[in-house]
Amino acid sequence: MAALKLHIDKISKKFGEINVLRDVSISVAAGELVTLLGPSGCGKSTLLRIIAGLERADQGHVFAGDKKLDDVAPKDRDLAFVFQSYALYPHLSVYDNIAAPLVMRELSSLERLPLLGTALPGAAGRYRSIDERVRETSAILKLDALLDRRPAALSGGQRQRVALGRAMVRAPRIFLMDEPLANLDAALRIHTRGEIARLHKKMGATTVFVTHDQAEAAAISDRVAVMFGGQVRQIAKPADLYRDPVDLEVARFLAQPFLNEVPVSATVGGMVAIGSGKIALRDAIGSTGPGTLAFRPEHASIAAHDVPGTLRVCLSRIEHSGTDANLFVEAEADAEFVVRVSADQARSVHPGEHLALTIDAENAWFFPESRSRRERVEREAA
Ligand SMILES: Nc1ncnc2c1ncn2[C@@H]1O[C@H](COP(=O)(O)OP(=O)(O)OP(=O)(O)O)[C@@H](O)[C@H]1O
Ligand SMILES: [Mg+2]
């Protein structure tokens, strides 16, 4: 079945006096996977529930293809919704839980009858086709060994995979997933997100995926919509989002757990004075005056003391994490940074030591204070 374009057009929603969504517009191309990424409470689930028809928008519309969905009942929207916590049928086996939507859709009530049903003309073929799809889906989700169990005999992660399976097996034209991996442990989470990405490629269903985990969003999305306070702040391909965050808040959210931020002043020509040196900004057009220079821990490195343009810092502590390490350093102006280095490099330095730091100007951003202040004012006024 051909995938459908999904268009979210100027959606606003209030709960009481709170603006939960403000003028949100997103176009998801047919077959595209777009992730809504943002902190808790920014309105991700509410937007997904509006797309599904479980919640009504105060303003705006949702279109699937050319069809306006506003007055279409949730069950007629041809979409599947996977929630973070998903109620399985407790009295049915894993197999029957996954098969349930197909059985309901493709077999008549007579054909569903035990024993007799399979004997009806044509029913055997339909049962076989359902069986194939249930087995294919359970193999993908590594549920094959659990097909005879009841949900009560499964772990949280296994239950969640059954819920995913039940949604996938219907091959819906639009897929909505609200933090479907949140209850899984780290390894399974990475495995399952890979499977979702693979399955998405194969099924080609238009998908809106919700997470507040930026690594997860980057791993599976065609594009990511970053949301704050009920608004979409930026929507872009993961690589573009990482390279060009639109403001400091987006940069911070994408650089978790650390974004280095230094108060600096930019001069005409895009030079920023930092410590004893200056760095030339990559994209400095129009941005002069006070602001913040921001960069990720992996975009600073330790240099020899005589390299020009370095920043003098003092190493305060080292946090090892296997193949690499985080160096916590203090700069002259009381600022603390984190620098990511290899484990080998971390072994050659010691707390208390003075180091020279270079910042990769290609991957540092200058956010002028005036702009962030303006944004703050706009946000507060809204
Ligand atoms: N039915 C409701 N009645 C009143 N307020 C609600 C309701 N549903 C959500 N909210 C509020 O709307 C805001 C957005 O909630 P929403 O669940 O959409 O956030 P979210 O981005 O999904 O957060 P999380 O990452 O924690 O799931 C929150 O402040 C929440 O408290
Ligand atoms: Mg939510």
Automatic annotation (TrEMBL):
Annotated SUPFAM superfamilies: MOP-like (SSF50331), P-loop containing nucleoside triphosphate hydrolases (SSF52540)
Domain ABC transporter positions: 6-254
Cell location: Cell inner membrane
InterPro entries: AAA+_ATPase, ABC_transporter-like_ATP-bd, ABC_transporter-like_CS, ABC_transpr_MalK/UgpC-like, Mo/tungstate-bd_C_term_dom, P-loop_NTPase, Transp-assoc_OB_typ2
UniProt cross-references to SMART domains, sorted A to Z: AAA
GO MF term set: ABC-type transporter activity; ATP binding; ATP hydrolysis activity
One protein family per Pfam: ABC_tran
Topology term for the membrane: Peripheral membrane protein
Gene Ontology cellular component list: ATP-binding cassette (ABC) transporter complex, substrate-binding subunit-containing
Keyword Signal: no
Predominant cellular place of this UniProt entry's protein: membrane
Keyword set, alphabetical order: ATP-binding, Cell inner membrane, Cell membrane, Membrane, Nucleotide-binding, Plasmid, Translocase, Transport
Family: Belongs to the ABC transporter superfamily.
PANTHER family for the chain: MALTODEXTRIN IMPORT ATP-BINDING PROTEIN MSMX, TREHALOSE IMPORT ATP-BINDING PROTEIN SUGC
Name of the protein this chain belongs to: Solute-binding component of ABC transporter
Gene source species: Rhizobium grahamii CCGE 502
Lineage: Bacteria, Pseudomonadati, Pseudomonadota, Alphaproteobacteria, Hyphomicrobiales
